[in-house]
Design brief:
alpha+beta, 14 helices, 404 residues, seven-stranded mixed sheet
């Protein structure tokens, strides 16, 4: 079916296949490139679940989702080179809640779609490839450990969280990687790498019917297990923080400091989380961005520089606000930020509308990017919303969330 928004003057095609695969196609006739994404609803937080047709929960090591991402490229006749030979780029990444495989190309879209489905929907890794890749991932983890910014961010999450897997690096730890074997990967592949747990998005100058026929034919030629809902289990995260203060010795020219606010995360709908995230973003921007009075104060007191950074996040299972900087005046920075966190300025209706419009305008600018649409349509799928419900939420978020 076609899902259209007159307000946005945009539309996309959506269909859920008989095997459960959800397909989103968006035609953008003015673009030369085509972007494709096949996303799996399986991320680094998913380490405890009941496998298909079983009754008991099993646990796999931290970093298994990321390890699986690497292993999907194994045993498929150098599939990365096959993409390159037809003029396409292929990439993949793992987040807390998903694993994403994507391509972009100027030509041979049909071949790219087939290759993308082959990449994700066939399992050809072996004990030999797993042992080989283990060494590569250990080197990747060691590389991260030599990157101060990455280490600093990771330690912030470890200090805030006591139970959630968000406190671990997505790639896992050297100890957890050593525990990952073919049995663990098979458990995860059989549970999560099923069409019913995937979302396929193609955005570009495409023909809806032609692409859909190609996808349907590809899926009809493959055999998948019977669909069952996979039950996942996540640790109960308390409101308490893990470490009130953590100091790490690291050879740096300028010390790094971050203050973190752990926000209680209650079970909520996707739309409720979107609204809360937007509301928190506006409140934080109003108090901490480069146009705020507080930012001017930090500059005048020579406490910050261009490394000043903050972010807020509202997700199922974890939410936080973080502000950081590289500064020799870290004690003064700590004092000022703490005081500000405890005494946030209330936002007026006028300023609320102004900030909301700013976010709205930023999203409009992003709509020039095909990559933006593939990401947003994937979000829409996993949130069980339409693309336009997500975009429209920016305009309709209620003021009463802000005023608490």
């Amino acid at each position: 079916m076609i899902i259209r928004s007159e307000k946005w003057n945009e539309e996309y095609y959506y269909e859920k296949l008989s095997n459960g695969l959800e397909v989103y196609l968006m035609k953008k006739t003015e673009y030369k490139k085509t972007y494709g994404t096949l996303a799996v609803n399986f991320g680094s937080l998913d380490t405890c679940f009941i496998p298909p047709f079983k009754k008991e929960f099993v646990e796999v090591p931290i970093g298994t989702a990321h390890f699986m991402e690497h292993e999907m490229f194994e045993g498929k006749d150098n599939i990365s080179m096959r993409f390159a030979e037809i003029g396409a780029e292929i990439n993949a990444f793992t987040t807390f809640d998903r694993t994403v495989y994507n391509f972009n190309t100027l030509n041979n879209v049909d071949s790219c779609v087939k290759l993308l489905l082959e990449l994700v929907q066939t399992k050809k890794y072996s004990n030999e490839s797993i042992n080989k890749e283990r060494k590569n991932i250990v080197q990747e983890i060691q590389m991260y450990e030599n990157m101060p910014q990455t280490v600093h961010y990771a330690e912030c999450l470890k200090s805030m969280y006591t139970a959630s897997n968000v406190r671990y690096e997505i790639a896992g730890t050297i100890e957890s990687i050593e525990k990952i074997n073919k049995k663990a990967l098979d458990l995860c592949y059989d549970a999560f790498y099923h069409p019913s747990n995937m979302c396929l998005v193609i955005v570009g100058n495409i023909d809806y019917q032609k692409i859909m026929n190609l996808i349907k034919q590809d899926q009809e030629n493959k055999t998948f297990r019977e669909f069952v809902i996979i039950k996942r289990q996540y640790p109960n995260e308390s409101c308490e923080i893990n470490k009130k203060k953590f100091i790490m010795n690291y050879e740096l020219q300028i010390p790094k400091i971050a203050l973190n606010l752990k926000i209680p995360s209650n079970k909520a709908t996707s739309m409720e989380n979107l609204m809360k995230d937007l509301a928190l973003s506006i409140l934080i921007d109003y108090n901490f961005d480069e146009t705020s009075k507080f930012y001017e104060e930090l500059l005048k007191k020579d406490v910050i520089n261009n490394s000043y950074f903050y972010e807020s996040m509202i997700e199922d299972g974890f939410s936080y606000f973080m502000v950081s900087c590289d500064t020799h005046e870290y004690l003064k920075f700590e004092e000022l930020i703490k005081n500000k966190m405890l005494n946030l300025d209330k936002i007026s209706m006028k300023d609320f509308v102004r900030y909301k419009n700013t976010i709205f305008a930023a999203n409009i600018r992003k709509m020039n990017s095909l990559d933006y649409f593939t990401s947003m349509l994937t979000d829409a799928c996993f949130c069980n919303l339409t693309l336009f419900e997500i975009l429209f939420s920016i305009l309709t978020s209620p003021i009463n969330i802000i005023s608490h």
